Amino acid sequence: MGVGVLTLPRELAEQAGTDGWMVIIISWFLATMASLIIIQIMKKYPNGTILDLLTHYFGKWIGRVATIIFALYFALLANVIFIREALFIQAWILPRTEVYVLILLLSIPSYQIARKNINILGRYSEFVFFMTLWTIIIYLIPLKYAHWLHLFPVLKEGWLPILTTVKTSIFSFLGFEIAFFLYPFLQKKEKASMGVVIANTLSLLAFLMVTIGAFIFYSPDEITIYNEPTIEMLKVLEFKFIERLEIVFFSFYLFVISTTVLPFMFMTVFCTSQLVGKQDYSKHLACFLLIEFAVVVLFPPSFDENTHLQQVIEKAGIILAFAFPLCLWGYVWVHGLFKRRAIK
Amino acid sequence: MKRMCLAILLVFLIAILSSCGRHVPLEDLTISLILGVDLDDENNLIISESSPVFNKDAKKSVETYQLKAKSIRASRKYFDALATGEVTAAKIQILLLGKRVLEHEDWFSILDTVYRNPTFSINTRVIVVDGPVSDVIFYKPADKPQLALHLKEAIDKNNGRSRTVNNTLQVLHRQMYEKGLTPSISEIKKEKNLKFVGVSLLNENGKYVDSLSIQDSSLLLILKDEQKQEVTFTIPMKSLDDEGGIFNKNELSIDVNRVKSKVKTKYDQDKFHFNYKIHMTVTIVEQLFPVGKVKEKELEKMIEKELNSRFKVLIKKIQENKIDPIGLGLYARAYQYEQYKKVEEHWGKALAESNIDVSVDIDIKSMGAIK
Amino acid sequence: MLFFRRYNQKPSSSRQLNNSLHQGLVSSELMDNIAEIQSIFCDTPDLIVRYLVIKQTQSQAALIYLNGITDSKTIFNHVLNPLLFEDSKDNSEADLKVSLGHIKETNTWPQIESAILNGECVLFVDKRTEAFIYDTSNFPKRPIEDTEIESSLNGPHVGFTETGNDNVALIRNHIHNRELKIKEMIVGERGKSKLFILYLADVVNPEVLKELENRIQKIDVDSIINAGVLAEYIEDHPYSPFPQLLLTERPDFASSEILQGRIVTVVDRSPNVIIGPVTFDSFFKTTDDYSSRWMVASFIRLMRYFGFFMAIFLPATYIAIISFHFEVIPLKLLLSLGASRERIPFPPYIEAFIMELTLEMLREAGIRLPTKIGQTVGIVGGIVIGQAAVDAGIVSNIMVIVVALTAVASFIIPNYEMGSAIRIIRFPMMILASLFGFVGLTVGLMILLGHFIALESLGTPYGSPIAPLRFPDWKDVFMRFPQWAINKRPLSTKAIQMIKANSNRPKGDKQ
């Protein structure tokens, strides 16, 4: 969740027209399935992360390689979202500030929160969730200009565009592969499956609301023109005491984006510190943030580059989050069968 | 301790860096409240803007400029040369379009920067001026608040009373791009005073085709299902024997409380059929003919007949001009998708050939406080 | 270099020069003992040495005490009088007839020294090797009166005094239970402050208690002047603006916190007691909340939290909106704002800083002024200065309103330390807002939040029940649920016994 939702309605509409909302439901289903598979895998090795599991089954070197792959993946993901966040801020709220200043500014709370242990991150996410719940309600207000007719007829072009669009919307559901790493820290492991399903469903509801809202608000002929229809929609809100709510809303939305970025950053330094063998994340985190800053200063980012990078990550994400657990689960299951047979 | 030093260092760094991204406080800005786009006699683009003056020493409270420019964004540098503070467009309340602009087909592209630049407010009300824009933008009546405030409140009030459409830039954009709908914009005219005269109707390319009076605008709003709380009609009872006389003794005013309209879309014999069933609950607020002359049931029938004929006139006008301000294209797309797709590009023509049927059903809820 | 060389004498490694503890014991010769006393207490004019002959045994004796810190009446009536004039026929073991409750015997000099310094009187008897210590201490103290800062409308008008024993007595008044245990500790080399740690033995979490004791034992100072100093030594996060231990002057508040499962530390000579572990919402509670009805109490609680946010964010929001995001303001307000700001030569953040600093100075100066002058200066200063500043064109009137609202909001917070914390946090927020607008505000809120959720008070999470989300505790945070709905102690205290009341729903409500 996070930055993806801002451009989601447009991306869906570009490929699937006003039936894009069904794409979300399909993605949700796939994401939930994948998360449940991950939980099943982790059940075989409850006290370690995926890296320990891989080391246990395949040996030390494969474990190391996997750590590096995961570290790179998370690092890239965090990078994409972080820079995108800064780009959005510059585009919508503070047009005269440089991107690297924004990156520096956002690094301060990121460093402070992500360098402690996972407890703090969890508390932070919990709190932010409840604090930003009201933003969803604000979304209901532009609906008085809604034209539900835009959604009809359903399935006008058939199923094919819907199925091909699934891979675009997967990006917004990514993030559940963190469950690979979080599992050993859970205290009530039996509730893990429930938790994962609820999390995915919440994402589903939020996305659906935003997408359907955008579809009924904008005509299908014009929705592909707006780059970020989600924010544009809020521009029409006008109360007696406050106007141009999208500025306030977006500033609050930074909180939600941060709950996406921070776990990824944490995961990156977790992986890298596993490689080195230490438990102290803060130095790694400081390094990571400095590298980010240097990258932004040396290669000033633009929306195109970022979108390009995002597409690369999407493909990597599909493999790591969907294909990999499936294969791994299959392997572990078969392994378990053999083991039982060997014991007999 | 180390952490604190680092934090302080960072703060200083940011403070130094941020002097690059300067901000301009409120009083040093020239906040445009009205933007005007017009064409002069030689078809040159004229952009005008009006902004309030905050300085107490200045005699006038508003400053207005008008000049030739290539586009709206290009005009900003000329305005900057004239005004005191930095010209900013973040609070533009009204956009005035001269009628000469609408007489050409592809004028909508001038407004590109308004949608592309995120700092523009998209709630700007769009108004067409029947005449040159300079008439309106330089108008400073002594008995009214500032022009921007006055116009904005006037259009909001008129929209609230269902006399004119509410067109913000957002709605205009949607109407321009939507293939099943043609735009309609409020219209004002300056004679001795500024007044709203109704709604201008444009065709799908943006060219002006016709105007509707205030009464007809209410009907259009009912057809669009966008009527707000108060809709009032004054209806002459033509079927009564006597002449009206000086005091218009055969007039009746009704206040429409609730409107329920249903549209049925069909495709038959190579054309679309739209069937409107409108059910109105009305209250009688003014009855100039004596009580007892006409019974309630007859009243209902008379009102129905009158409204039906008015709707017919409106629809004929719409179809003659080959436009669709009502938005029946949306219904066609929703319910008859394949047929609609064939005629999507020339929906106005298709609508002109289709059959629109309106039937009104009136229910008189009450006669008011007196009999 | 010369400057430094002069002060090059290394301070001695131990803090007290004459720290040699006298190793000897009391001798049986009276004169030797008296000589010893006079050598220890030279230059002490309030030392009284009263030679007397005990009537019962006809032996020489000397009574030694420090005048001023002993209760003369007790000495005369209960010590000297029986010793000098009573002579009973039974030759029992108790030959020293002193009608006092607290009597000790000792023969080591350090004990005698500290006893005299504590206000007790010491009796040396010739030919006996023990000295007798009688508790007659009576340090000057003030009567029990209402607290100034934490006054309440409906609650008791009793506040702690500076005597530790009296304070313990006041708490005992509220809790007549044998589980109320008191641990006594002494801290400080020269000050020898007595601390009393009070808790309910079957309710409090033993780990938290142990943590507190460990921390106090590690303290190595000359003296603890008051409870605030002690609190600073045992805090978890001294660099945080938020206080992690609650200081209060009200016995009813302290007792109710003990009943919730918290630990109260009474510091002798300080009218404040320390309550720990606390959570963030404890700083927003007053006794009045529990004396009023629940709807009123909930409303006022909500107002306090609202005031908290307003005090931190209002000036910053003003700066952010005026400098960066004026589009957010509706048109009419914008016109009047523009007109009022137009005359001001300063940018908004300088204006805000000037006003805020002026207000802080006024507030701090107001504490020192006696009431009669204070009121006049307050009114004159506030109104006249504010008005004059607006007229002179230094600040705009909207700024004055903002600053006044902020000040009022920050005074709503019942706890003084939390209020001060808010006043401090306001300034970095203003700086961030003046640099980055709303984004700066959001980042500031993020930093504050990140700091807040990591805070701990004596090892328990500080932000509970908000940061680690504990829904059962929410009954008493933002709104006060009716008393009969709150039956359990809060989860944040980690108490080991949780139920404090059974269902007590009033009969009239039942259907």
From TrEMBL, chain B:
Its main location: membrane. It is a lipid-anchor. Residues 198-368 form the Spore germination GerAC-like C-terminal domain. GO terms for biological process: spore germination. Keywords: Germination, Lipoprotein, Membrane, Palmitate, Signal. It comes from the Bacteria. It is found in: Membrane. Residues 24-189 form the Spore germination protein N-terminal domain. GO terms for cellular component: membrane. Pfam families: Spore_GerAC (PF05504), Spore_GerAC_N (PF25198). Belongs to the GerABKC lipoprotein family. This is Ger(X)C family spore germination protein. It comes from Peribacillus asahii.
TrEMBL record, chain C:
Belongs to the GerABKA family. This is Spore germination protein. The keyword Protease does not apply. GO terms for cellular component: plasma membrane. One of its GO terms (biological process) is spore germination. It is found in: Cell membrane; Membrane. Keywords: Membrane, Transmembrane, Transmembrane helix. It is a multi-pass membrane protein. The chain crosses the membrane at residues 305-326, 394-413, 425-454. InterPro entries: Spore_Ger (IPR004995), UPF0353/GerABKA_families (IPR050768). The lineage of its organism: Bacteria, Bacillati, Bacillota, Bacilli, Bacillales.
